[in-house]
Write a structure and sequence with these properties.
The protein is 47% helix and 16% strand. The chain has 502 residues and is of the alpha/beta class. The chain folds into 3 domains: 112 residues, Nucleotidyltransferase, domain 5; 178 residues, Exopolyphosphatase. Domain 2 (Nucleotidyltransferase, domain 5); 187 residues, Hypothetical protein af1432, CATH 1.10.3210. Helix 8 crosses helix 11. Pathway: Purine metabolism; ppGpp biosynthesis; ppGpp from GTP: step 2/2. Keywords: Hydrolase.
């Protein structure tokens, strides 16, 4: 059964978090209603505050004014929210600027609200909270956030950070320091990379003592790289080989004005080379195999820090529950298919090398949401479901995991589109194929939509050959399910997989 999320937060209230970062100022506003947190507004402005620091760490008047002008646009929305539900924090640049107090005093007058300048460690803690809430994890997770003037690295388990640090390097400060005049030479890039590696190496031994199961990047440069990969038809985690190819493209551009990469947002173009150098350094020094994108960062951490009860909720169950309710999915049928899928998944994972600690969660989530598209209409409802999942929030899952669930829902019935698998790396592809076969079979076994009419097979896995054993007379007693399985055997055969039902 899908878990119910405790309804313990004050109902129908608005909360706001404002992050005065070194590159951008962010504001997020959420509505808390009926046990769910709904984002109603996001506002982001490129201020590049760190670019206004001189050699004496003095903020220029121009950079101060850019920040104040941005806050004037934020003020109007904040006026409609109870002051106790607003939290505004400032990070790296305002930690180190010699005239930070001058900016803070003027900014507080603009906003009519107190601003807290948080330490690097507190920033790291809040980032981890935002990531942990929006991208639920099992086991230890390494989290990386590359900011404008600092980079936070955290390893934690569930909602608890275990070790964290803030490193004085960021995409704005490194761009100013190592790419003067916007020149993108191999020498400049190597200098930025060497400095970043030297800084990370001071902390790498401690972090490598922890055995983490996944690495998550919190927005910024990692998000920019994922968007580039998607434009190239690559549904994959970030890998060092991709970063090296992007480094070569950056250097080949020779100047920031000539840098043009399909999928790279114009707002990130100027600071992309420096962020890329820092990310490569992190991959090399921490020996990262891959990195996925989290669903949140500092702003979300601030919000959920104000909502203590939500920290204890099952974020994934909450996200699934919200969609089940919002799109009027038949909860009884959703639970039936989910229960069968989990049973088959556990049998499959005992016999397959293509399972990780999230396989069951992805399969069960797709099973629970497989009828999402019926909200639009029956014809091609699997495609409608995939479309909806492309455009809605799904709390507790990374970007790549949301793609998995989307594709499982989109192919849970009718013909199997093999081209969907082409954009995944081999290990992810095999996991997706196995997951898809389980979801499709589970839906068929629950065809009659009754708890007492679901056959319970034993699954034997031998490579791509799967055998479902039902026992004597079971298939004869369920002719509708039997007919659907015969048809499914043919569809899987066309996809190159063998399914035997006996």
């Amino acid at each position: 059964m899908i878990q119910e999320v405790p309804n313990t937060v004050i109902q129908d209230e608005y909360y706001a978090a404002v992050d005065l970062g070194s590159n951008s100022f962010h504001m997020v506003i959420v509505r808390v209603l009926s046990g769910s947190v709904q984002i109603v507004s996001k506002n982001k402005r490129k201020v590049r505050l760190a670019a206004g620091l001189d050699d004496e760490l003095q903020l220029s008047e121009d950079s101060i004014q850019r920040g104040l002008d941005c806050l004037k646009t934020f003020r109007e929305q904040l006026e409609d929210i109870p002051p106790s539900n607003i939290k505004i924090v400032a990070t790296a640049t305002l930690r180190i600027a010699s005239n930070a107090a001058q900016f803070i005093t003027r900014a507080e007058k603009v906003l009519n609200h107190k601003i807290s300048v948080i330490s690097g460690e507190e920033e790291a803690r809040q980032i981890y909270l935002g990531v942990a809430y929006t991208s639920a994890n099992q086991g230890n997770t390494l989290v990386v956030d590359i900011g404008g003037a600092s980079t936070e690295v955290i390893v934690g388990r569930d909602m608890q950070p275990l070790h964290l640090t803030s490193v004085d390097m960021g995409c704005v400060t490194f761009m100013e320091r190592y790419f003067p005049g916007g020149v993108l030479s191999e020498n400049n890039f190597d200098k930025a990379l060497a400095e970043a590696e030297a800084l990370v190496s001071l902390h790498a031994p401690t972090f490598k003592c922890f055995d983490w199961q996944q690495c998550l990047g919190a927005s910024g440069t990692p998000q920019a790289i994922v968007e580039i990969l998607l434009k190239r038809g690559i549904n994959d985690a970030i890998r060092l080989e991709y970063l090296f190819k992007l480094r070569d493209e950056v250097i080949a551009s020779k100047h920031i004005d000539s840098l043009s990469i399909n999928g790279l947002a114009e707002s990130r173009r100027v600071i992309f080379p420096s962020g890329l150098a820092i990310l490569i350094a992190l991959f090399k020094q921490l020996r990262l195999n891959n990195m996925q994108i989290s669903g949140g960062a500092l702003r979300e951490g601030i919000i959920y820090g104000m909502l203590d009860n939500y920290q204890r909720a099952d974020r994934r169950s909450q996200g699934i529950n919200q969609l089940v309710s919002r799109f009027h999915i038949d909860t009884a049928q959703s639970d039936r298919v989910k229960k069968v899928a989990i049973s088959l998944c556990r049998q499959m994972c005992q016999q397959s090398n293509f399972c990780d600690f999230d396989t069951e969660a992805l399969i069960s989530s797709a099973a629970a949401l497989h009828e999402l598209g019926l909200h639009v209409g029956y014809k091609k409802f699997h495609e409608h479901g995939a479309y909806i999942l492309t455009h809605v929030e799904l709390t507790g899952f990374t970007t790549l995991q949301r793609m998995f669930i989307r594709d499982l829902v989109g192919m849970h019935r009718q013909e199997i589109d093999l081209s969907v698998f082409d954009n995944y790396q081999d290990d992810f592809k095999e996991m997706l194929i196995n997951a898809l076969r389980i979801v499709r079979i589970s839906v068929i076994l629950c065809t009659r939509r009754r708890d007492d009419t679901i056959p319970a097979p034993t699954l034997a896995v031998k490579g791509s050959q799967w055998t479902l054993s039902f026992g004597d007379g079971v298939l004869l007693a369920h002719p509708l399910v039997h007919a659907e399985l015969i048809h499914e055997t043919w569809l899987q055969h066309k996809a190159g997989w063998k399914l035997i039902c006996q």
